[in-house]
Every structure is written in structure tokens, then in C-alpha cells.
Design a protein that fits this description.
The complex is a heterodimer of chains A (306) and B (160). Chain A is α+β, with helices and mostly antiparallel strands. Helices cover 37% and strands 26% of the residues of chain A. A six-stranded antiparallel barrel of chain A has the order 1-2-5-4-3-12. The relative contact order of chain A is 0.12. With 160 residues, chain B is mostly helical. Chain B has six helices and no strands. The longest helix of chain B has 27 residues. Classes of the chains: A alpha+beta (306), B mainly alpha (160). At the A-B interface, helix 2, helix 3 and helix 4 of A face helix 1, helix 3 and helix 4 of B.
Chain lengths: 306, 160
């Protein structure tokens, strides 16, 4: 019978595909149930061949991401360190000033008291300073205000818990002064410029024949009973004015930048006059001149003077 | 099988490897292997679809350390069953294509979940169904975009 002898080719192909399909599924089942020792080489072979380029790409991407993260972490660290450094800069400066004040306080003696200096900050109160100590702590008008750099100003009015003073840039400021070697005596007063930053001093009342080298240190002379002898005031600059055969004055570069004074020493008033304080700066000046070569001229210690 | 569909399936495989394995995008990219198997299965007979699924599944299995062969088995079964759907359903509507893709992905995840066994399962069946449904929806959307742009799955191939 021809019908039984030749089956439909489509059915044969279908059966064949079904057997192949079963074979593939069986293969998948076998692969899924192989022992791990047999599976691992297979997986390794696939990873080392077909997947190799993609795994390499993944390595590159991961490395790039890690570098990006490292860069951002490093940037954050740099930012943090910069912020710390910036924060510490004023702190270090203030620390330096306070240390200087502490050293000066030990040298000038117990009559001098550390105070905090405030500035009102208004235009009308230029050259005025407020200190956080008053009559209750022994402050009185005409008490000198000094810093480790030298003379800063003087107290004008003392109240119960605070006092008001003026710094050397005030137009009314006067100080009896002399050159550090004690050769020439005169009066230091404020000379205002067009701006507050231009303010400097004039060393006036010098004899016409006086020849003072630029850079010579001028200190308080102790005359007049306000400032004790030996407080550094400034350094001599050019000649400011001459009256032939009569007198001469010099510009003076102040030692104290009044705008940056935040702490100072103020003398308490008592019956006894303030003694010579020149030694306080003399000790400080010695190592500085050794180390820098420029040095700070030391005012003369006591003795002599007018 | 049409050359265009073959190229689309190859591109899907390459994209899957590039995005998932090469760039490590993860769940941000749908399961393009399953999409490729489902595309191929509508164009060729079940043995070829099953073999194609097995190959892709083994590529997936080689990336992991556990349950080697489970992805191969899942994709081979999905390929075989998807190829059989040509004898059961004849249609090229978007609704049919969406259902086909969605159920295909869901079935693939379910078979894999069964194949890995209790020791390799990362989540219970409820969690799997929820996660798999979302992944299937995502893959379906991408598949529909692919249909709209390339024309795959819109016409059945001549190969039986």
C-alpha cells in the first residue's frame, strides 16, 4: 500500500525537529545538572572567549569609575584642607599676637593689664578705641596702651567697666619722644593722610642741626608723665619740614598698625610713676636681629633722659 | 528566517552584553536576551529557537558562579515554546505582540526560578512575580518600540 509505505514529508520533518528540540532541551537539562567541577571549565571557556571583550570593557569602565571617585575624594580632601588652612590663618595670627602680648606682659610688670580692644567702626569714631576694662580694674585717663610692637594709643576717658581711648592716628595724639640712642628729643604727633591707611607720624621739635639716619628707632622719652620711657613708636623716614637755622621735623613710620590691634596692655594708674619699660623690647629685639639681620632697634634702658 | 530579523536579534544580543556586562548598567536595561529569543522564535522552528535560547542562556550562566545551566534551560524552553506559538496563534497585532513578549519574559523568569532550585533562589515566588512583572513590562515596552521601528514580529516568517 503506497499510503503506508511513504509517509508525509512534512510530518517527517516535524518529527525530526521535535526530536532535535527534545535533544536541545535534554542538553540544557544535562548542563544544568552537571557537577560544579564540570560546569566551571565550561563557564570559564565562555568567559575566556565570547565574553572576554565585554569583561575587558567592564574592567576599563570600573577602573575609570574608580578613578573618577578617587578624583572626587581627592578634590574633597583638598577643599577640606584648604578650608582648614584658611580658617587657621587668622587664628594663627591672633595666636601670635597674644603670645607676643603675653611675653610683653611678663616683661613690663604687674602694673600693665591685658585688655581687649574694640573699635566702634563708625566714621565719627575713627582713631577711637574701646577697651573692656575700666575704673573698677584701675584704669584712668592718660593710661598708655601698648602692644608687642610698641605704642598704640592712650586712654582718654575711663568708666566703671570700660574705657575709651585714642590711637596714635588721632589728630590730638601727642607723645614726648626721643631717638633710641637718646641723642635727640622731640614730640611725636599724628599726621593724617588722605585715607586712614595713609596716617603716619611726625617727629617734630628737633634742632635744625639734627641729622637722624632713616630707619632710626624713636621711642617714648618718659617726659610729660603720660608714657613711660622706652616704648617703641616708629622709625625715622624722610625729612618732613625744615625751618632754616631753627628747627626740623621728620616723617615717622609707625611701629603699630592700629587697625589690627585687637588686644593690648594698659597701665593701671597708681601713685607711683611708670618706670622705664625699654628693656621689655630690648630682650625681644636681640634674637630677632640675630635671626633676620634686620632686627629691631632696642630702645635704651633707663638712665639719663630728660 | 529573514535577514533583517536575524540582524535585529544579533544587535539585541550585542547590546545586552555591552550594556549589562561591559558597562554594568544593570536593571536600567531590559532583558534583551529574552527579547532576542522571542524575536527569533517567531521566525524559525522550535529546535533552532531552543538552541539559540540555550546559547544565550549559557552566555548568561557564564557570568555567574552558581546554578550554571539554569538560564540556558530557561531560555531554551522559552525559545521552544515561543516557536510553537506560531502554530497556535497567528497574529501580528500590537496587542498580541505585547502579550507574547510579556508572557515570554514572565515564563522565562519563572522557569529559571524553578531551575535554580531552593538553594539558589534569591527571593520567594511572590517577590519574583512582582519583580518579573515589572521587568516584563519594561521589556515589552522596549519590544514594542523595536517592532515599531524595525518591523520584527509583524509578519511571520516562512520557515517552519
Amino acid at each position: 500500500m503506497p499510503g503506508l509505505a511513504t509517509s508525509d514529508p512534512a510530518d517527517q520533518a516535524g518529527r525530526s525537529r521535535f526530536r532535535v528540540t527534545l535533544g536541545v532541551l535534554l542538553l540544557a537539562l544535562v548542563l544544568a545538572n552537571l557537577p560544579p567541577t564540570a560546569q566551571e571549565p565550561l563557564a570559564g571557556a565562555i568567559r575566556g572567549s565570547v565574553l572576554r571583550p565585554f569583561l575587558r570593557l567592564q574592567e576599563v569602565v570600573v577602573a575609570a569609575r574608580a578613578r573618577a571617585v578617587e578624583a572626587s575624594v581627592l578634590q574633597a580632601r583638598v577643599d577640606s584642607l584648604t578650608a582648614v588652612a584658611v580658617d587657621r590663618s587668622p587664628l594663627a595670627e591672633e595666636n601670635r599676637r597674644l603670645r607676643g602680648l603675653l611675653r610683653l606682659s611678663e616683661r613690663v610688670g604687674p602694673r600693665w593689664m591685658a585688655v581687649q580692644v574694640l573699635r566702634p567702626g563708625t566714621q565719627a569714631s575713627e582713631s577711637i578705641l574701646l577697651v573692656d576694662a575700666g575704673e573698677d580694674l584701675g584704669l584712668a585717663p592718660r593710661s598708655p596702651v601698648i602692644t608687642p610692637d610698641g605704642l598704640a594709643g592712650v586712654i582718654r576717658e575711663a568708666y566703671r567697666h570700660y574705657a575709651v581711648g585714642m590711637d596714635w592716628s588721632h589728630p590730638d595724639f601727642r607723645a614726648s619722644a626721643m631717638t633710641a640712642d637718646g641723642e635727640y628729643y622731640g614730640m611725636v604727633l599724628s599726621a593724617r593722610g588722605r585715607f586712614a591707611e595713609d596716617a603716619r607720624m611726625r617727629f617734630e621739635g628737633l634742632p635744625y642741626h639734627a641729622r637722624i639716619e632713616p630707619g632710626t628707632l624713636v621711642v617714648s622719652s618718659g617726659l610729660g608723665g603720660v608714657f613711660p620711657r622706652g616704648i617703641p613708636i616708629g622709625r625715622v623716614g624722610d625729612v618732613a619740614e625744615e625751618e632754616p637755622q631753627w628747627r626740623k621735623s621728620y616723617w615717622l613710620e609707625p611701629r603699630v598698625a592700629v587697625g589690627s590691634v585687637t588686644a593690648a596692655l594698659v597701665a593701671r594708674q597708681s601713685g607711683d610713676p611708670l618706670g622705664d619699660v625699654g628693656l621689655a623690647w630690648e630682650e625681644e629685639a636681640a634674637p630677632a636681629s640675630d635671626s633676620t639681620g634686620a632686627g629691631v632697634d632696642a630702645p635704651p634702658s633707663a638712665g639719663g633722659g630728660a | 528566517m529573514r535577514t533583517g530579523d536575524l540582524l535585529v536579534a544579533g544587535a539585541l544580543v550585542l547590546l545586552h552584553l555591552l550594556l549589562h556586562l561591559g558597562l554594568g548598567v544593570g536593571a536600567g536595561v531590559p532583558d534583551l536576551f529574552t527579547l532576542a529569543v522571542l524575536v527569533v522564535a517567531r521566525e524559525c522552528h522550535e529546535a533552532a529557537a531552543a538552541f539559540f535560547g540555550l546559547l544565550l542562556g549559557l552566555l548568561e550562566d557564564a557570568q555567574g558562579l552558581l546554578s550554571f545551566g539554569s538560564h540556558g534551560l530557561a531560555l531554551a524552553l522559552v525559545g521552544a515554546l515561543a516557536a510553537r506559538t506560531r502554530d497556535l496563534f497567528v497574529g501580528d497585532s500590537l496587542l498580541f505582540a505585547a502579550s507574547y513578549l510579556f508572557l515570554g519574559k514572565l515564563l522565562r523568569d519563572l522557569i529559571h526560578w524553578v531551575a535554580v532550585g531552593p538553594g539558589g533562589r534569591l527571593q520567594p515566588l511572590g517577590g519574583l512575580l512582582l519583580e518579573s512583572a515589572m521587568a516584563a513590562a519594561y521589556m515589552t515596552v522596549v519590544g514594542l518600540i523595536l517592532i515599531a521601528t524595525t518591523g520584527v514580529l509583524r509578519r511571520q516568517g516562512a520557515v517552519r
